[in-house]
Amino acid sequence: MINNQQRPNLLLPAQQPTRQQHRGRQNFFLTICLLVITGLMLFLLAAAWEAWGVPQAAPHAYQTALVTSSTPHKQQPTPTTQATPTAQTALIAPQVDSLLTNKAAQQQFSGSVLIAQHGQVLLSKGYSMADWDHSVPNKPHTRFYLGSTTKQFTAMAILILQQRGKLHVHDRLCSYLANCPAAWQPLTIHELLTHTSGIPQLDDSRLSGASPEAWIASYNGVSLAFTPGSQFDYCSVCYQILGYVVERASDEPYSEFLEQSIFDPLQMKDTGFNPNYLSLPDHAVGYAGWRVKAVTLGWPTAPQWTFLFGSGLLQTTVEDMYRWDQALYTNTLVSQQTLDEAFTPYVTASQYVGSGYGYGWFLAKSPVPGHRLIWHDGRIDGFRTYIGRFIDDGVTIIFLSNLATLDELALANTLEQIVFSHINR
């Protein structure tokens, strides 16, 4: 007799095919079950893998998601946060929060603050009221006038045009101005950027009203205060003139050029030069004193006059200023070589002891020896603002205030001391 186990492939009459079919069906169902179980296990493993946050291809270390202490009023795509607070930096937020809460209670601070290190937002919060009449509190997405902190954006617009081949910072100013005043003939764009032109600060009430060209020509006969390049003298009107140069070189209104070339690429959706500021949602009212309204700002609103805004009328939020700060660690707007031009101290002494000046930025030393601080403040009716970028330490301090009695430089120094007392050097 033939043993079926010894000859497994031999077909016998009658019952043998039926057993094979039965055994095949068993194998088929077993295979299906195994496939289902394996697929389920792979799905669960993939879900766990994603939840555990396995690193993807990492973006630049200084590009980050904007983490705030409250839910943002609108979603704006930002890169992924790379860092987490250390035991030391975790102490910064509660200490700053306590300080500013007490200052607000003592009627010494009103505004919004954002502090970050290495792409990690440590604190983003509003204090006191944006609008006392309507009981609207300040928040991270509240808009404020920047004052002179606007100048860094005007300088960037000039540098973008230089990179596009539309101008060069060492070009003669009068190459871009019709009816250029005789005293301005030797001036370069560089000298206006660095406040070394000698153009005196004039009263804006002298605006012709006929045209921007007539406004420029109205300065004819006004002598320079000193030989160009020989000294530093802070000049807000110079940045209005630079705003006009932006218009002439780009063939666009100043405000539109900045929107298309800076704000839109950086998704700064709450930033701009809206003449109807007081009708915007989430705006801060400026206060000359505690609950005492400042004079309402009034400027020409026609597009051809927006160059006047180049010295101090930009409106923005701490969240958008942080997007701007983070972009300056990248080549999103201009090359690294061009960024280095902006952050070079062409003037070694300014009105602030220990600070030189580049293109739209004061340049000083960080509390860490050998490290740099790039900063600017702003003052305009009812508002005080500040941004400090400790670029070698990865630290950013931004605050926008709607209280004119605030000493913004004293507050910046206090916040700097708190932050660096908790950072390993």
How many helical elements? 10
Amount of beta strand: 5-15%
Helicity level, as a percent range? 25-40%
- Quickly name the level 1 CATH class: Alpha Beta
CATH fold name: Beta-lactamase
First-residue to last-residue Cα separation:
90 Å
| Class by alpha and beta content | alpha+beta
Provide the CATH architecture. 3-Layer(aba) Sandwich
Order of SSEs, N→C?
Answer: HHEEEEEHHHHHEEEHHEEEEEH
Tally of structural domains: 1
Strand order of the largest sheet: 2-1-13-12-11-10-9
> CATH homologous superfamily name?
DD-peptidase/beta-lactamase superfamily
Number of strands: 13
Chain-averaged pLDDT: 83
Largest sheet: 7 strands, antiparallel
Rg, nearest Å: 31 Å
- The coarse silhouette is globular
Can you characterise this structure?
- The chain has 425 residues and is α+β, with helices and mostly antiparallel strands.
- It has one domain: DD-peptidase/beta-lactamase superfamily (Beta-lactamase, 3-Layer(aba) Sandwich).
- It contains ten helices and 13 strands.
- The chain has helices spanning 16-51, 92-105, 151-163, 189-193, 212-217, 236-250, 254-263, 318-327, 336-342, 408-420; strands spanning 111-117, 120-127, 129-131, 136-137, 144-145, 287-289, 292-293, 315-316, 356-357, 362-365, 372-380, 383-390, 395-401.
- The strands form four sheets. Strands 2-1-13-12-11-10-9 form a seven-stranded antiparallel beta sheet, with helices on both faces.
- A hairpin with a 4-residue loop joins strand 3 and strand 4 (136-137).
- Helix 3 packs parallel to helix 6 and helix 3 crosses helix 7 (254-263).
- The longest helix is centred in the N-terminal third of the chain and has 36 residues, at 16-51.
- Mean pLDDT is 83; it is low at 1-37 and 42-82.
